[in-house]
Design goal:
By secondary structure, the protein is mostly beta strands. The chain is about 0% helix and about 60% strand. The termini are far apart.
Length: about 80
Amino acid sequence: MTRCFPNPVKDVVTLSSEALKGGGKVVFTDALGKEVKRTSVSDESTTIDVSGLNRGVYFVNIISKEGIKSTVQRLIKQ
């Protein structure tokens, strides 16, 4: 199960996903599918600074270290 909180978010989002066990990538895309942020993570629970993103709706793509796209979460940035 993947958790993405708080949602809506202002500055820092916490992600927790079994797919990130052992590491992986988190890719943020805007509503049009354009990549706006990519972060490598090393643990299944991590915090990511999203203060640089504009207000709006984003999709958080969780990609395991094996390159398997596991889940997409909708995130609202205030």
